Amino acid sequence: MTHPFVIVGLKTATLFLGGMITFYAFRAYRRTRSPALRALAIGFGVVTLGSLLAGAIDQVLQVDRELALIVESGLTAVGFAVILYSLYAE
Amino acid sequence: MVRDPFGDDDAPELQDVLDALDDPDCRAIITELEAPMTASELSDAADVPLSTTYRKLDLLSEASLLSERTEIRSDGQHTTRYEVAFDEVRIALDEQRSFDVGITRPERSPDEQLAAMWSEVRKET
User: Looking at residue A19, what is its pLDDT?
Assistant: First the structure.
């Protein structure tokens, strides 16, 4: 069993780094008003949100670990789909 | 004068486009620009003196008919290459019967789009 602090630490780092990327992408969107950059920011935001929600479900709700895993994997898939879409958006 | 890669929405002034296309040297430059080229390569290819080439490139960039891409070489020097940034230029009368210039841009491939988006994101850091 991994020490919970390791997971919390890694999750915090993921949230911080993902949040920074999302923030910069969003600011670039605000400046350029480009739909592609909006999609890029949303995509990174969704992946980061997935990590946040999974961490919250796991640590706070103390429910089945599997739910946290499903939420995280699902939002990661959706986020990457949006990032891929951004490459084809106008 | 680097054109914003996402600035396609703000169309150039009609006069700028007409000025650029009215110029035989500018047209020669566009004809030669099959692949991205530097100013000196263009000067040779289009047989236009280098100082004139720079002036014409400014004219074309102003009309947003060309775009610039800057490459940083491994020795730290910058190279600017120019490429044609339009497929079609359309001049038409709008509802108010004033001249309207429309420029159709070439499609960007996903990898080019990613590079362009990322350079915009990097400007925020």
Answer: 96
